[in-house]
Design brief:
Blueprint lengths: L2 H21 L5 H8 L3 H13 L3 E3 L6 E3 L2 H8 L1
Antiparallel strand pairs: 1-2
Amino acid sequence: MRKKNEDTKIRIYEYINEYIKNNRVSPTINEIAKNAGCAVSTAYKFLERLKDEGLIDTAGRGRILFLKFIQRFMRTIR
């Protein structure tokens, strides 16, 4: 994965984490895309990557994102 894509993926993951901490619900795909400065379809692809890597999980539709393995992920990016 290109460095810029990796940075965007990390930024999205961190945004989701902070959003959930502050609001106690997960952000919508539109909110994630707006924060990342990308199209909704691009944000969706990044969420799929995070899901494939086991860092988030989803259930149903809408605001249902679950963060997984936060400590492991944060260690790998530092």
